[in-house]
Write a structure and sequence with these properties.
By secondary structure, this protein is of the alpha/beta class. It has one domain (31-332): Aldolase class I (TIM Barrel, Alpha-Beta Barrel), CATH 3.20.20.70. It contains twelve helices and ten strands. The chain has an eight-stranded parallel beta barrel, surrounded by nine helices. Helix 3 links the parallel strand 4 and strand 5 (120-125). The longest helix is centred in the middle third of the chain and has 18 residues, at 147-164. The protein binds ligand PBG. The site of ligand PBG has 11 residues, from helix 6. It catalyses: 2 5-aminolevulinate = porphobilinogen + 2 H2O + H(+). Homooctamer. InterPro entries: ALAD, ALAD_AS, Aldolase_TIM. This is Delta-aminolevulinic acid dehydratase.
Amino acid sequence: MPHTFPGHFPATRLRRGRATDFARRLSRETRLSVDDLIYPVFVTEGEPVNVTAMPGVQRHTLEGLLREMTDVVALGIPAVVLFPVIDPDKKTLDAEEAANPDGLVPQAIRAIKQEFPQLGVMTDVALDPYTSHGQDGVIDDNGYVLNDPTIDILVRQTLAHADAGADIVSPSDMMDGRIQAMRAALEEKGHVNTLIMSYAAKFASSLYNPFREAVGSAANLGKADKRTYQVDPTNTDEALREVALDLKEGADMVMVKPGMPYLDIIHRVKSTFGVPTFAYQVSGEYAMLKAAIDNGWLDERSAVLECLGSFKRAGCDGILTYFAKDAARWLAD
Ligand code: PBG
């Protein structure tokens, strides 16, 4: 319209690049691929159970887990992370079961590695599935989580997982100094290629509740919280200090958790350190999306792929997500 811009015209029309599908494809800056996905799975010694607050997620028996792995491998997902649901009578104050070389997690690792040796197996190093009080460490009489005594058992848990064949050990406990202790123990035992992905910037979030139902630690924890070890959700510099320390202590990959409410942290971690950076799209994020999807308020495929894509845009190399199998399917279409 000549009268709109008398005598001149906008030199840049960004809409030109958006006008056609081919141009939009050519100018995409980031891309989500199946290679970015890590699938969290729950394994139980008891009966298979659907997790109420996480529609579509189950606690699997060992046999069920192997069926699930068949799908994961067929879809080309590179790795899974295992979370155990421990028999209530095996939970104790000191979480000794966590270091049992024949416990549920080592058994699951061996079973997966035997059938699917190429699949990356990552394990959660933390005591909350094993403690009678649901905390991630050993507590004193006031319920305070003791740092160094907790590390002793985390190290033994790490070795039990590595000996069973875990490829990545992933401490989610937030004790100070645990990466250094784990790395030293792995080196001494000859596990030189076992990767450590630290939950480096793990916030004391309210978005973990569905997970606590899934692993069966919610009732043990009761009204207690984890604020004496997980990072306060208001902080950024502190999260960066956590990442710096974990890298110095020998972490190979770092994680920010939760995911979407913390994209600013992801961006700062990636731009500051330039190391393999992962996000955990946690149970509460999954529950929120599923609730809206199941009500017909969001379209599942487009909403989930957009949210997962936001992690790539923020700087993530990969994402732990309960949507991994769905996303892999959609990405293959
Ligand atoms: C605990 C652990 C938690 C998650 C992973 N490992 C919960 C917590 O810190 O209480 C949460 C994962 C999720 O919410 O999906 N070691």
